[in-house]
Write a structure and sequence with these properties.
heterodimer; A: 110 residues; mainly beta; six-stranded mixed beta sheet; five-stranded antiparallel beta sheet; globular; B: 116 residues; 11 strands
Chain lengths: 110, 116
Amino acid sequence: KQEVTQIPAALSVPEGENLVLNCSFTDSAIYNLQWFRQDPGKGLTSLLLIQSSQREQTSGRLNASLDKSSGRSTLYIAASQPGDSATYLCAVRTGNQFYFGTGTSLTVIP
Amino acid sequence: GAVVSQHPSWVICKSGTSVKIECRSLDFQATTMFWYRQFPKQSLMLMATSNEGSKATYEQGVEKDKFLINHASLTLSTLTVTSAHPEDSSFYICSATTGTSGYGEYFGPGTRLTVT
């Protein structure tokens, strides 16, 4: 069964800093990988979707990379802002099902 | 982009009653819908996978007689929490996908259920 792990579980950085969130998965036979953002008490917002054939995707200050063979993905956030504070989840799709990571709780300090 | 809605967004019910949550894909046909539950400060946990016109597949540990799932059309799935108890209080999120391999999964905004 696919297992998805995210490191670190929590991260606190000063505003303006660049940061990297990590996601690892045990089964490399994935269709795609998504990064989500979740604000407290709210649903998920999809940030980036990377297909299994792709290496990276970029949207604004966000860049996600995928190394399928090693079972890793990173989410890079440039010039962090207090509004980026949220929980970030990665999820991999294997078959017709998504497996979620444990999440990284990010706090950006003004 | 694809939109998934949930109704209601927030519901309070008394212990022993049943609650129905609707999940709709507004601008695409969802062959598969998923139901997740999230307890405070925990990640999402998949409860069941629902394919249109067939019985839902439940994850281990999820009581199928308690969490009734109906996926009657390509745009609507419902989750009914029967005989709800306080421990069922949680955040329930649905998602939908067309089922094709490269397609992402689109999430509803969630429903917060509080059982008193």
